[in-house]
Design a protein that fits this description.
Layout (H helix, E strand, L loop, with lengths): L3 E2 L2 E2 L6 H13 L4 E4 L5 H10 L3 E5 L2 H9 L3 E4 L11 E6 L15 H6 L9 H11 E12 L4 H10 L2 E10 L4 E9 L2
Parallel strand pairs: 3-4, 3-6, 4-5, 6-7
Antiparallel strand pairs: 1-2, 7-9, 8-9
Helix pairs in contact: 1-2
């Protein structure tokens, strides 16, 4: 069920980026799985259904967490990784809001939060990468969707700064951007 506020939907609908993250996650997810920014819970539901894994979803948007729960996904309302304890997950998936947005053009509603990555497109990627190592169990994997619109090389620099090796799990080009799901593993 799509939820709406006064001016439109309140929960991000699965699109090309969601499909790409789901494809990578179904292939690589293992153990205890967290999907940060779960939105409708569509990706988490696919991982659970196709891999038989327990998946927890989190989202800052209470409408999204409710919709994910309606899909059967255990979902909590929370800011990125704040609700979770150290070493809690073997796989962490994230399709962050990544569209670069001029602050003067932001409209401050739930869909804006689901889409806008701030001026650089990396506003949520930076704190996510700074903290994801804390919730990741030894031998764990991070699957991070990155758009060419966010400055791919800048994201790779953040990945390396956070202490992860990276490889392309899956990638697809569109007329307006290239979407890449990076597989991140801690450097040993």
């Amino acid at each position: 069920m799509t939820r709406f506020d006064r001016d439109g939907p309140t929960v991000y609908r699965p699109a090309e980026d969601s499909g790409l993250l789901a494809e990578a996650a179904v292939a690589a997810a293992h153990g205890r799985v967290l999907e940060v920014g779960t939105g409708s819970g569509w990706v988490a539901e696919r991982i659970a259904d196709e891999r038989g894994l327990r998946v927890v979803g989190s989202d800052y948007n209470p409408h999204a967490a409710r919709e994910a729960r309606e899909r059967g996904v255990e979902a909590v309302v929370g800011d990125l990784l704040d609700p979770f304890r150290n070493d809690a997950f073997d796989t962490v998936c994230f399709n962050p809001p990544y569209l670069p947005t001029d602050p003067d053009n932001e409209w401050d509603d739930w869909m804006e939060r689901a889409l806008s990555g701030g001026e650089s497109g990396r506003e949520l990627i930076e704190p996510f990468l700074a903290d994801v190592g804390r919730v990741l169990a030894p031998g764990g994997t991070v699957l991070l969707l990155v758009s060419s619109l966010t400055g791919y090389e800048a994201v790779l620099a953040l990945v390396e700064e956070a202490g992860f090796d990276h490889a392309v799990a899956v990638e697809e080009s569109f007329p307006f951007e290239t979407l890449t799901v990076l597989r991140l593993d801690r450097r040993v």
